Amino acid sequence: MLNAADLVAQIRSDLDPLKEKIRDHPYLSALEAGQVQRDALRAVAGHQHHIITSDLRSIALLVSRHGALPSRAFLVKTLAE
Asked: How far out from the chain centre does Cα 70 lie?
């Protein structure tokens, strides 16, 4: 059975192909080439802002709920990576 650190490492490794797909997405090439209209870029930035602020709230709730457990050190270390 995997311990928590090994599980996180395995999940990260499993996600490597997805990260490559994202890095190679045509949108990024179009953005670098200046082919994305400002309105479209604003929309993407707005969506990302919403997602990130929501994720930050979720992480804060997670830490507040589990802050007193022995797993807190692992949780904080993992979130910092």
From this structure: 24
Coil/strand/helix, residue 81: coil
Q: What residue numbers bound the domain in which 55 lies?
A: 38-81
- How buried is residue 36: exposed, middle or buried, by Cβ count under 10 Å (0-12/13-18/19+)? middle
Q: What is the pLDDT of residues 27-78, one digit of tens each?
A: 999 999 999 999 999 999 999 999 999 998 988 887 788 777 777 777 777 7
**Do both 59 and 76 map to the same domain?**
yes
Same domain, 19 and 44: no
Domain co-membership, 46 together with 28: no
